[in-house]
Amino acid sequence: MQKNRICELFQIEIPIIQGGMIWCSGWELAAAVSNAGGLGLIGAGSMYPDVLRMHIQRCKQATVKPFGVNVPLLYPDIEQLMKIIIEEKVPIVFTSAGNPKTWTSKLQAAGIKVAHVVSSSKFAVKCEEAGVDAVVAEGFEAGGHNGREETTTLCLIPAVASAIKIPLLAAGGVGSGAAMAACLALGADGVQIGSRFVACLESSAHLKFKERILSATEGDTKLSLKSLTPVRLLKNEFAEQIQLLESQGASKEILMDVLGRARAKRGMFEGDLVAGELEIGQVSAHIDSIVSAESVVNEIWNDCLSRIDQLQQNYLG
């Protein structure tokens, strides 16, 4: 049987990576996913440098298995974050929202594996040229910050798979074993999952936010703030305000003023379902329970294998 490239690269048992989501992905969730055989990521995008160090150290205490840190490259204190990651000997870093050339070689020189998140095959090729170890191709179904191209995962993955030779992770709309099996069939070596892990017991998201996810139905999310940085949000009063301003041609300055500071923290971490920013993917419409991260990993992986076996039985006899 051919070995899985993602499992070999990151030294994990199951090719499921938990997305590093701001305000939701602390050490507890990352450790739980890694202990279940996948790869847990600490979301550094919402952490001050000293807070990130604390999360890394606690994650080390909670698991002996590999884990990583997700770092948006536009983070204002990026130098301090990377210094801490190198000092703490974090084995894996997932970067996003910036040029992978800036940090890839420096991290690799410290023995760190690097993956970068993209939303197009064009940028996937640039990542490969920059020397990253793996690429995450994220379709616009995904929650949180998103690509301007609005390419769906179903179209994006085969395009990226044919454009690069390095390991590929599929993201966006993946929350079940069936979806994972589909991504593998399209050419991915594994998947990165965000939204499903938000509604986990170990997620640091506020309980009110988790419960709102459970009640989400089709069409309850929308890609907004395209003139700034596109982000998929659950519809609420804040999202409707943004949509109205955008339809009226509001300037970037006005949108930034309305967005203000700590809007995402207010929604996802503090549970303000009215005026907070609620980042979640379209797959939220299929999430109906708050369970452990271990349960999510096992359910998705076992169902994925079962789906593959069933397809072989159905069509190969």
List keywords for this structure.
eight-stranded parallel sheet, TIM Barrel, 11 strands, single chain, three-stranded antiparallel sheet, 317 residues
Describe the overall structure.
This protein is α/β, with parallel strands linked by helices. Helix content is 43%, strand content 15%. It has helices at residues 5-10, 27-35, 49-62, 78-87, 104-109, 121-130, 153-163, 177-185, 195-198, 207-214, 237-247, 252-259, 263-269, 293-316; strands spanning 16-18, 40-43, 67-72, 92-96, 113-118, 134-138, 144-145, 168-171, 190-193, 221-224, 231-234. Helix 4 links the parallel strand 3 (67-72) and strand 4. It folds into 2 domains: 5-205 and 287-316, TIM Barrel; 207-283, no CATH class. Helix 6 (121-130) runs parallel beside helix 7 (153-163) and helix 8 packs across helix 14 (293-316). An 8-stranded parallel beta sheet has the order 1-9-8-6-5-4-3-2. It contains 14 helices and 11 strands.
Structure in a nutshell:
The protein contains 14 helices and eleven strands. The chain is an alpha/beta fold and 317 residues long. Helix 3 (49-62) packs parallel to helix 4 (78-87) and helix 6 runs parallel beside helix 7.
State the CATH topology of the largest domain: TIM Barrel
Distance between the termini: 20 Å
Which band does the percent of strand residues land in?
Answer: 5-15%
Helical amount: 40-55%
CATH architecture of the largest domain: Alpha-Beta Barrel
Note the main sheet. 8 strands, parallel
Radius of gyration: 18 Å
Q: What number is the mean pLDDT? A: 95
Could you tell me the number of beta strands?
Answer: 11
Query: What are the low-pLDDT stretches, counting only 5+ consecutive residues below 50?
Result: none
For this structure, what is the CATH homologous superfamily of the largest domain? Aldolase class I
Order of helices and strands: HEHEHEHEHEHEEHEHEHHEEHHHH
Structural class: alpha/beta
Tally the helices.
14
Strand order of the largest sheet: 1-9-8-6-5-4-3-2
Top CATH class of the largest domain: Alpha Beta
Number of domains: 2
Shape: globular
